[in-house]
Amino acid sequence: MILAFYFQLILWFPLGAWNDQPGNRLITVVKSGEAPLAAITFASLMLLPGLLFALAYWRRWLWLIWLCLCGKIVWLAMQVQSWWIRYIFGANARAIQNQRFLSRTYKILPSSPNHPAPDAMHMVLDILLSLVVARTLIGLLKARRQTILHQSAASFVQSAD
Transmembrane segments in this chain: where (predicted)? Predict the structure, then answer.
């Protein structure tokens, strides 16, 4: 839920250099009356995966938790491709050009001309996302192992009868 809260926070509210990127935060769009329904719909859709995961966890629907995990893995892969590959291995001219839009954001890691560092907002997002993926995967694998052990024990008891 921390990931969902953080994501909504950076979508909705201007936080100075933390999320100073092109475009308006959703609160500005809603207040201006430009497209309030579109902004609220977009924010709701961004909340949907977190709500589905919470429902799946509450109801113990492992199949839905696996599905939510797949979505988070895809999101993490997109983040790695967008930020970390170009930071570690170097960026193309287009990615370097796009970095100027993030020139007013906080950066934790050092940058070089061909290796632009992710901004702090995305770095925190990626850390939270990585923790969610890792923790969910560990929990699902433990649940799977327990299910297998219970099935084995049940079949052993049936064969003993």
Answer: 35-54, 61-78, 120-141
Asked whether 105 and 21 are in contact (CB, 8 A), the reply is yes
Short-list 34, 108, 115, CA closest to 25: 34
Q: Which among 114, 110, 109 is positioned nearest to 126, based on CA atoms?
A: 109
Task: Tell me the DSSP string of 91-158.
Answer: --HHHHHHHGGGTTS-BSS--BTTBPPPBHHHHHHHHHHHHHHHHHHHHHHHHHHHHHHHHHHHHHHH
Q: How many domains does the chain have?
A: 1
The one-letter amino acid code at 160 reads A
Q: What are the angstrom distances between the C-alpha of 87 and each of 37, 79, 90?
A: 37, 12, 6
What predicted TM-score, i.e. pTM, was given to this entire model?
0.83
Quick one: which of 55, 41, 34, 33 has its CA closest to 11?
41
Q: What residue numbers bound the domain in which 53 lies?
A: 2-160
Q: Which two tokens stand for residue 50?
A: 């977190």
Q: Which of 14-18, 52-56, 156-160 has the lowest mean pLDDT?
A: 156-160
